[in-house]
């Protein structure tokens, strides 16, 4: 008999209540990432939000605070959203993976971000599907390759489709909604880039968010 692939589906309650989903996510054992993380970091925002922003995973500060995008990348995202004319308070913000994946250096205690594996992204996807079904946004913004592949498929190439208006694939996703989708880079990539290119990279991110802002206006 084949071994069951781990996943979060056994832990996701059948509800559209985001607070109930958030509470339930703390008990998730759908993959091994829960063992080292401080807590599950669920999405935040209004259930009536017309836009959902999806990143990769919580970082060190998000893991400690229990809230998404509150660290340096979150502050840069706030700046780009403001420049694009999007009120952070009007959107729902979450991540494809709900637990912080990290490594520890041989010396020191600073936890270093590690990209989630495809298996971990797929294992956590039932939480993301539950959020999408609860919020039912008109526009979804995918921040970074991990988030993009989580919904668009593993063959999706962010560099080829960045800033375009897309639709979710009709296969592999058990969702009864059809939001317009915009894929762009994760704000952390702007911070990791050369300092001399940072303003240009931030403006490019802002331009992609302006596409989402126009779609909001069309909703």
Would you kindly provide a written description of the structure presented here, covering whatever features stand out?
A hairpin with an 8-residue loop joins strand 3 (102-103) and strand 4. It is globular and about 40 Å long. It is built from eight helices and seven strands. It has one domain: Uracil-DNA Glycosylase, subunit E. It has helices spanning 18-25, 60-65, 72-84, 118-135, 145-152, 158-161, 187-192, 198-218, and strands at 51-55, 92-95, 102-103, 112-113, 139-143, 166-167, 180-184. The chain has a five-stranded mixed sheet, sandwiched between helices. A two-stranded antiparallel sheet has the order 3-4.
Brief overview, please?
The chain is of the alpha/beta class and 219 residues long.
Count of domains: 1
User: Which residue ranges are poorly predicted, with pLDDT under 50 across at least 5 consecutive positions?
Assistant: none
Question: Can you write the helix and strand succession as a string?
Answer: HEHHEEEHEHHEEHH
Rg calculated over all Cα atoms? 17 Å
Residue share in helix: 25-40%
CATH topology: Uracil-DNA Glycosylase, subunit E
Family: Belongs to the uracil-DNA glycosylase (UDG) superfamily. Type 4 (UDGa) family.
Protein name: Type-4 uracil-DNA glycosylase
Organism: Mycolicibacterium litorale
InterPro entries: UDG_Type-4/5 (IPR051536), Ura-DNA_glyco_family4 (IPR005273), Uracil-DNA_glycosylase-like (IPR005122), Uracil-DNA_glycosylase-like_sf (IPR036895)
């Amino acid at each position: 008999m084949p071994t069951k692939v781990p996943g979060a589906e056994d832990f996701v309650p059948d509800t559209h209540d985001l607070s109930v989903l958030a509470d339930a996510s703390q008990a998730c054992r759908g993959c091994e990432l829960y063992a080292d993380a401080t807590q599950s970091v669920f999405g935040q925002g209004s259930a009536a939000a017309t836009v959902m922003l999806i990143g990769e995973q919580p970082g060190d500060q998000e893991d400690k605070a229990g809230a998404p995008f509150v660290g340096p990348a979150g502050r840069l995202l706030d700046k780009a959203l403001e420049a694009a004319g999007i009120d952070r308070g009007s959107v729902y913000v979450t991540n494809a993976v709900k637990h912080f994946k990290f490594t520890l250096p041989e010396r020191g205690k600073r936890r270093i971000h590690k990209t989630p594996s495809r298996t971990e992204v797929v294992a956590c996807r039932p939480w993301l599907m539950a959020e999408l079904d609860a919020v039912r946004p008109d526009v979804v913004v995918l921040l970074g390759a991990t988030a993009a592949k989580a919904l668009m498929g593993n063959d999706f190439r962010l560099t080829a489709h960045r800033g375009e208006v897309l639709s979710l694939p009709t296969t592999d996703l058990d969702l009864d909604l059809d939001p317009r989708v915009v894929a762009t880079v994760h704000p952390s990539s702007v911070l990791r880039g050369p300092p001399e290119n940072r303003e240009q990279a931030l403006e490019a991110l802002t331009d992609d968010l302006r596409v989402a802002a126009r779609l909001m206006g069309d909703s």
